[in-house]
From TrEMBL, chains A, B:
This is NAC domain containing protein 32. Transmembrane segments: none annotated. Residues 7-175 form the NAC domain. Keywords: DNA-binding, Nucleus, Transcription, Transcription regulation. GO terms for molecular function: DNA binding. It comes from the Eukaryota. The lineage of its organism: Eukaryota, Viridiplantae, Streptophyta, Embryophyta, Tracheophyta. It comes from Forsythia ovata.
Length: 199, 199
């Protein structure tokens, strides 16, 4: 299915926040069929869920077939993943993911539909490696910078027959430009070529 | 063809600069078939080419079927258009468009392919209505703010059999939020709802 889409140049999977909730997360939580089968399902949390272990190069390769390239960096990639949140007690969620933790460091945002009703919540996380400061930084630099935009259901999305409300859909962004072993950053030089052209 | 694409939610025509040059502008200039027929052809320049006259509400409606909505404003739309540049002499182009003029007010940018070769040039224009200052501003406010990203062939794109090198492909952005008659800006309030959520 993803192949058929990708045959038209310039078309990419660039869903809006509302698309992710309405067309993907909600049917997933309601155990209904999805309009496209290109979103992977992965356990992003737990003792073995270090992101660069569970998301393989093959996963990135598949995702690249429908994802729009980041124009500011050739070393940046994004991938969409369904995951189940791990509840700790009744209100908190476990954020441990293998060798580190997904830290939320920004305020969340309500996602609304066109009628202005709240349909979901978007939160942004950054992956931090466990351990002492020096080690943490080194490990980080080797695997790049990892960011996650997490979408969960809220508001009117929850009044219907939602069977798995702990599902989240995540946009995972891997930035290898902040990785010591990667030296490719060819697009960065481009903007420096900008000079004035008198028509 | 555009209809078939639009049946998969989350997929939009969000071409990169390179896509526009390689898959659309270059074949157009070489009189080769295009991979998708959804890009309109319009005369954006000349005495009758006021943008809100030549781009009809029906054109915007068609374009909305494949365009990704701007998440920062419900009053903003974009459309892709092929046009022919009007040469004045050998180096300059005419920028008059009906009741006004497309003004370029920013430095241009070279577009490169993955091999680092220059394949095109991107320039940004703003539409300015002719006439005295006060009138200009008023007219502007009534029709919204119009921006154009213009892509033309350059560098290695011109070494092949280009028959119509005066073709440009343009992304036209119409922002009606700066229009007095339009009061809908519902998405603007959304970001103010952001508050901290302790997981």
């Amino acid at each position: 299915m993803s192949m058929a889409v990708n045959t038209i140049p310039g078309f990419y999977f660039t869903p809006t926040d509302e698309d992710l909730i309405t067309f993907y997360l909600k049917p997933k939580a309601m155990r209904q069929p999805l309009p496209w089968d290109g979103i992977l399902e992965k356990n992003l949390y737990g003792d073995n869920a270090t992101p660069w272990v569970i998301l393989t190069e093959n996963d990135w390769e598949i995702s690249r077939q429908t994802a729009r390239a980041y124009e500011d960096s050739v070393s940046k990639d994004e991938m969409y993943v369904f995951t189940k949140l791990k509840k700790i007690g009744t209100v908190r969620f476990g954020r441990v993911a293998g060798s580190g933790k997904w830290n939320d460091n920004q305020p969340f945002k309500y996602i609304k539909n066109r009628q202005g009703e709240i349909i979901g919540i978007k939160k942004i996380f950054t992956f931090k490696v466990k351990g002492e400061k020096g080690h943490e930084k080194m490990d980080h630099m080797e695997k790049g910078h990892w960011i996650m935009h997490q979408y969960t259901l809220a508001g009117v999305s929850l009044v219907q027959e939602v069977k798995d409300s702990d599902y989240a859909i995540c946009r995972i962004i891997r930035d290898l430009s902040k990785c010591r072993t990667n030296v490719a950053e060819s697009s960065e030089g481009q903007s420096r070529l900008d000079i004035d052209l008198n028509n």
